[in-house]
Amino acid sequence: MNQNTRVVITGVGLAAPNADNLHDFRDKAIRGINETTEIELRYFGKAPAGICTFPETKYRKKKDNKRGTRAGCLGVYCTYEALNDAGLDIDYYDRSKIGVYIGLTEHGTVETENEVYNIKQYDYDTKYWTHHHNPRTVLNNPAGEITMSLGITGPHYSIGAACAAGNASLIQGVQMLRLGEVDMAIAGGISECVGSFGIFASFKAQNALGYDEDPRLACKPFDMSRNGIIISEGACVYTLETLDKALERGAKIYGEIVGYAMNSDAKDFVLPFWERQAECMELALQRAGLKAEDIDLVNTHATGTKSGDIEECKAVKRVFGNSSSTYINNTKSIIGHAMGAAGVLELAANLGSFDDGIIHPTINITELDPECALNNLVINTAKQVDAVDTILNNSFGMVGINSTLVVKKYKG
Prior knowledge:
By secondary structure, the protein is α/β, with parallel strands linked by helices. It has helices at 22-31, 62-67, 70-86, 109-119, 133-137, 141-150, 165-179, 197-205, 243-248, 274-288, 306-320, 332-335, 342-351, 353-356, and strands at 7-15, 37-41, 45-50, 98-104, 156-160, 184-191, 231-232, 234-242, 255-264, 297-300, 327-330, 358-359, 383-384, 390-397, 401-408.
């Protein structure tokens, strides 16, 4: 592996609960516009959720979407958008040297629940079970649907890393480029979880499902009245290229991935552990060759659970407590928790800071929890600063998996 190979982000495609393109997504993040709505799920009832609206047949026919999955539909849309954003024709690179790496928290739950529900009308006779079920539910399905749509013959697979999966996919892309395994990486995260009543029921059983009479106010990390996670669907895909190749073709460069780390709490199935989270951030900084005070913006993972927010705040205070120049925000307050897509969507919401120096706010904070009182936490209103040159992006997940990315503005 050539650790000196520099890897940059050249294209971004996304579908979020409040936008279907990066420009609108960034604009709404700065203005703190939350479009969470209330949905009703079979067997469960009503709950706040983030739902994506995007042109589902822009790049793939309706019959192909019907045969495939919601996750695949999201992935195909975002990949084409990322390639278009990057100004890349798919034939610019050898298709056998393009890798597709997609982070997932869960996959197959939605399809299985739907199929069980469908055969109910036949007294649960499994002869009516669809023959499409297996290819729809294998873990590599969303990545595979992307390759089939674009004729990519290089490696594809999904990264199962709970809610750290989006960050993990970008890390995988960087590593494969540095190894020379691929010449270009399509990397991102996808979540279709709002289609599963079981996910909502499980979070409710854990007393971790958030609620508010106004669903737009339901996701409130760091606030004293926070009461849990707001589940969202979404997807975000990046084109990653080596710096020399990006410069060779005159690409627009969003930023350079200069550091990353992943580690494990090895402690609990659900409860996070601040010491391992702090160590993850510290290792990412070390690999980036940066100190805490070199980071201009930390985007937190905080989901709106009582203990989870506090644990991350302990970690952030240990790493950045002495840095007066580091600002902190949270994107989930605006879009909810998009699970496997969370890290990549949240990074996308902040990439524009490199250009405009604006840090989008953490919204829905009425009374800040004293245990979450971080220095320079941007609350409710966007903050204009002199410059943002470095972003540290946190994403943590169940069964104790942590991920941190450090992205730097490319200055030539």
